[in-house]
Design the sequence.
DNA sequence: CTGAAAGCGCTAACAC
DNA sequence: GTGTTAGCGCTTTCAG
């Protein structure tokens, strides 16, 4: 700010002390007499002194702040995670800098180097779907920057991670459809390279296997842009409709896909669950108000943010980035709505 | 970062020049020979030099960054605004620091002083509903920090502002209900002290007046917590139900109120629009998928963010914070759904 | 055209 | 206990 704040120099000057004495008194150093401390602290309070964080950062090469890289802020899941992160960061006196990659690798590279340059003490990241080369994370991590990945983690970087029980969640969602007598279940996910995609696919397969339903690769669909473009989802839907063995149910791997797909169905005049039963991941808090109410897998987003931030701060404060990476894995919740209503077999 | 980056000193050393020459060469100063510039620039590129923004900030007392204070990130409207802000900030080479007040005055004070201390060059803000004393904004603004308010602006601070045409929007929403033969229209808003509340109320009144419908103050309800607590909305709904002249339609002043109210209705077994017709502000992008599809007033959130950021950057770069405050006012859009379907008068 | 030196606000040896 | 000094990385007078 061009705004002139009070500095240590001001205090030193006013009290006839040296800058270092003031500095030490402010940080309650053992070498300063109680009297002087009282004096300095008292005066500092009256003139409303706050240390200049920029100067501190420059000196200390750290900033008591953590950086966050998410694909997109305007997303129910990520914004809830951010709230979780902020809640522990605030408790622990850390500042949070939020950046979004907008799902591009370039954005992600810019973000992480921006943050590193800004002396964040550590980073929380969920990778963009476009990213295949993770060296921007690797390099910084190797140089000692603590990084905790969440949700969309990168397995090749040996670091802490917080995820949801993806396999189990997808398994439960798919099994729920199977129990409700759906048999031809299509799987729609975003970019196939994402950790969450492969894990959720695994859970889907597991359920099929367990229920003795043969795997049909025609049922597997990817939207590399995660359903951000309407056309992308629409073309998947149309291709499903044109298949000889048209699916009777759909498993959707992410938030945006779930709602985009529902919109497509509506536009094409399809009925849910009559034409397709739907189960999808979603962290929107209004899936119960939709038409029909959606059966969703909800991630404990806020808690994930909290855990990730706690892991990160622990890593920062113990400086042991190298070894014993912790992986926390939280359960998702299956919330049953009308979009997956049991099918009557009588027909 | 503990991460050691290359500095001007490294370049100077490697090239046998002085730090100042390198610094000047990098900023393309006229006093440096072309040859030296080539040399420095070339070398800087090979070692991948980036100026340390912290050092620059300390020196320059500005940071090529702008701060954002919103009540809450996990909100469709605000997250869209943030995207708009980022889009112009990135274009213009500014970094965005996002903070949330979580609707508390204390959080807001912390945020804005945090940002000022971090040498942001200017701020974008939408005030918390709890805030009544705006001196934290006033003080910084007087000291020369450019501030642009958006959506929830504060009129007593003489500064730039971007809003939606609140009066007109609320008027259109209410008029739409009146046209559809609803006559007893309740108004539900959040904190009555907010700019958006008073303006939207004004529009509501205007419509009533124009359609010759008498104003009934029993129809006016405030949720000081903006519908973040379910009980708050439920108690409003129950009080409406208990009234002698029960309303036949509801105008909802914000996003969260709109969806919370719908949820309450559902829980109490009420039918929309039969029991109540609904029109509300909302920037959720799935109001068309709800049951029933909602008639909403949608704000051009992304564009508001863009405009606000452009105003701010202009203010920063021209340093004229004092005079000629610009107020931009964008139209909202009425999107008609089933929640306000015309009532048959036959009954 | 280039260099030396001071200083942004703060901390931390190293004196006394 | 307290002061002096140097330095984090950078810009910017002021000298040459």
Sequence:
């Amino acid at each position: 700010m061009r705004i002139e704040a009070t500095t240590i120099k001001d205090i030193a000057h006013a009290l006839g002390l040296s800058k270092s004495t003031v500095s030490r008194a402010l940080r309650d150093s053992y070498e300063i007499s109680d009297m002087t401390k009282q004096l300095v602290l008292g005066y500092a309070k009256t003139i409303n002194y706050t240390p200049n964080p920029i100067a501190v950062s420059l000196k200390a090469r750290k900033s008591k702040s953590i950086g966050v890289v998410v694909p997109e802020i305007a997303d129910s899941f990520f914004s809830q995670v951010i709230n979780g992160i902020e809640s522990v960061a605030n408790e622990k006196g850390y500042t949070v800098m939020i950046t979004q990659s907008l799902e591009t690798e370039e954005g992600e590279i810019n973000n992480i180097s921006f943050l590193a340059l800004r002396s964040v003490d550590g980073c929380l990241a969920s990778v963009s779907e476009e990213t295949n080369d993770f060296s921007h994370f690797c390099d910084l991590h190797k140089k000692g920057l603590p990084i905790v990945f969440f949700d969309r983690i990168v397995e090749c970087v040996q670091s802490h991670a917080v995820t949801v029980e993806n396999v189990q969640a997808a398994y439960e969602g798919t099994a729920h459809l199977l129990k409700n007598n759906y048999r031809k279940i299509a799987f729609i996910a975003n970019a196939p390279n994402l950790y969450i995609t492969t894990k959720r696919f695994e859970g889907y397969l597991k359920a099929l296997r367990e229920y003795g339903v043969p795997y049909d690769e025609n049922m597997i669909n990817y939207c590399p842009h995660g359903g951000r473009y309407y056309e992308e989802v629409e073309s998947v839907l149309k291709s499903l409709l044109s298949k000889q063995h048209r699916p009777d149910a759909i498993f959707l791997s992410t938030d945006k896909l779930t709602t985009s797909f529902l919109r497509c169905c509506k536009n094409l005049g399809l009925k849910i669950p009559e034409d397709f039963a739907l189960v999808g991941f979603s962290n929107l808090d209004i899936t119960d108000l939709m038409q029909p109410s959606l059966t969703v897998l909800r991630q404990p987003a806020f808690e994930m943010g909290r855990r990730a931030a706690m892991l990160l701060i622990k890593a920062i404060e113990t400086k042991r980035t190298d070894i014993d990476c912790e992986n926390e894995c939280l359960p998702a919740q299956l919330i049953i709505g009308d979009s997956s209503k049991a099918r009557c077999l009588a027909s």
Observations:
- The mean pLDDT of chain A is 92.
- Residues 5, 7-9, 19-20, 23-24, 27, 51-52, 54-56, 58-60 of chain A lie near DNA strand C (CB under 10 Å from a C1').
- The longest helix of chain A spans residues 301-318.
- Chain A touches chain B through 52 residues (CB under 8 Å).
